[in-house]
Amino acid sequence: MALNGYILTALCALWGGIIAQDVQLISFRECPVDLFFVLDTSESVALRAKPPEFYINQIKAFTKLFIDQLINLPQPCDRNVTWNSGALHYSDDTELVMGLVDLNTRRLDLKAAIDKIKYIGKGTYTDCAIKEGISELLRTGSHYHENKYIVVVTDGHPVTGYKEPCGGIQEAANEARQHAIKVFAVAISPDQEDTRLSVIATDANYRQNFTAADNSRSTQMSTISTIIDLIVSVVTQTHHNNDVCVGTPGEKGEQGSRGNRGPRGDPVTFFNPNRGILIYLNIFRNIIFPHFQQGEPGRAGSPGYRGDEGATGPEGAKGPRGIKGAPGDRGLMGERGEDGPPGNGTEGCHGFQVEDHSGGKGTPGPKGDDGEPGDPGSDVSPFRCICAYHYVSLNAIFSICISESIGASNFAIAKDFIVTVMDRLKLKQFGANESRIGVVQYSGANAQEVVQLGDPNIKTLTDLKQAVKDLRWLAEATYTGEALQYSLNNMINKLVTERSVVIILTDGRSDTKRDTVPLNVLCGKGLKVGGVGVTDYAERKPNPEQLEEVVCKDDPREGFSFVLNNFGLLLDDSFLQNLTERICEDKKCPTYTCPISFNDNTDVLIMMDSSASVGSKNFEMTKEFAQMLAKRFLSAERGGFQVRVGVGQYSNNANFEAEFSSNTTQVGAQITEAKFQNAGTQVTNALNFAIERFRGGRTRKKKLLVFSDGRSQGVNNIQIEKSMEQVSNAGIELYVLAVGNQVNEVHLRTLVSRGRPYDNIYANRHLFKVPDYRSLVTGVFYQTVSRKISLESRG
């Protein structure tokens, strides 16, 4: 019986060893790969389409589809590629979605966590996100360092001119290479900043125009399949027969000593499932065991586990040339070019004498030759605050938003806008008691920069303009309140506030949840605050509530605001006139207008557009503008000549609202009674109507002003050309006024062509443009229009 016990004990020990060997064999057969996703949910991604979640949802769907394809893959020599995966998403902050988990057990948990991603929508710190992904791979996952991968899904934005707080993407990519971590760069959509994506990728094989949200050039499945195939090929073929998951066979162990004979055991039954035979071991125990002898050596065991890492080897050979680096900083400004030819300007209005600085009377010179007659000058001085060489000093502070939603090209326009306003204000006298000017640019938290006269390298206005042009785009979040507090502490408090004007250029969407400084921080400080809200590159409108809060409407020096549809309108002449007029309206300058005059009997007909696309409120402003023109025409210097004004309107049909008359009161009253037609737009009907009304009166000049955006139902360019030939043959000089930016440029060019080949100089004198109807009745635009119409044609 004792022998039976020994036999049973030996069999159990043998069975336990077999089971343990099977567990080790299963573990050996697994070749785990760690794959970590780094997902860009910054503002530049969110604003590429409407709604903002569109591309974010595309990225989430791509990632979940990718995870579904990460299944165990059998390989030669009884090996299986298995997967561990995790993810994070980032903007100017990094949020861990889930650390590395075994997809055989936690696949659904990881997909559910990805579904809960909410885009952050601020700046883009890709370098920080990659380094955080590297940390996750090294901290957890398998011990095979060569089997670690990162998939970065980003738009590569921005390219240049912003801060990378974690050393930059080049440094992050190099760190991944040092740890043998391979990085794939996947674009959100095709053709996105391929230079930066190539810097992120380990090499060209890890870029390959991978795309996460494109159904035409590279589907999601093709991108995913290519990446998986590349990973598997590296894992199983890198070292030929000795891949990265297999260690080298260990040395053969020494032969063990023979064990003691065990006691006789009890009878045992054993069922072999392969043969199905019941063996009664107690029948053979006295026959088999006495004849046991030491057998031949068994087959070699399975390869052992990978050993510890050895000492660092000698320095390797110089590697291949790296990929092209990112663009460098902008170079220094070049030398001044050669002077251009003299300009062809027009004589301006007489100036205003303010102090007697005249010198002694000079000797009369000889009479010069008579020159060619030139155009009279503009009817107004460029800006009303330029009323004299000396005036009460003006302190101007510009605060411009340069968040990521602005876009690089719009930031360049914003800098040109500031330089243009400086030129228009003509602030020539600077010093301790004179005008001061400075610029603060801002983006996210603690992201403000200031340039101003008086800085060590800024001694003149020219230096300041160059400093503004050299400002670099920060491309982060939008902290307007914090920026205004910074401006107050670093610039405004050092100035005389009652002479200070602050202009804030923004997209009107400050992050008030993270920025704790209130937007009205400048209110109650005796400042005049102006806000310019501009639609960003994703066509999101400025927040009107934030804009109203910024400009301090309830202060004694009431603020003002403008809203523009795009950044290009910042350089529009009419907007610049209105802005500088608001900046300078507190200046005590003379009120003046350059008079207009007619040198012949003249009839002026104004045709107002009352189609449905105009709208009733805009039509009321059109009527007010027509009254302002009529009053100015009929109060002009006539020198014995007769001037008459008539007003009509057109939509589908045209009709007279005020017959030709020299009575200002009568014409104004008739304009007031005009009713909005609210129908279609037929500009050719307006031209035919004018020809009929001007018929006769061959000795009178005929001037026609038509409101038109160039769009007309059922009318093509050929029909407009024929109508213009008839207008020209009737001796009518046509002027066109276009409102807004939704215009048909081709038709407008034809309307001011006189039925002849296009003449750019003539067209510029006969085509007026304003960004909106409010601009018609604010500022001095009506003086500009009336001045040009009153001039003698030089066609």
UniProtKB/TrEMBL annotation:
InterPro entries membership: Collagen, ECM_Assembly_Org, VWF_A, vWFA_dom_sf
Domain VWFA: residue ranges: 34-231, 395-579, 603-785
Gene3D superfamilies noted in UniProt: von Willebrand factor, type A domain
Principal location: secreted
PROSITE patterns: VWFA (PS50234)
Signal peptide extent: 1-20
Name of this protein: Collagen, type VI, alpha 1
Keywords assigned: Cell adhesion, Extracellular matrix, Repeat, Secreted, Signal
Domain of life: Eukaryota
Stretch list, region Disordered: 243-269, 298-377
Pfam families associated with the record: Collagen, VWA
Keyword Repeat applies: yes
Keyword Repeat appears in the UniProt entry: yes
Subcellular location: Secreted, Extracellular space, Extracellular matrix
GO BP annotations, alphabetical order: cell adhesion
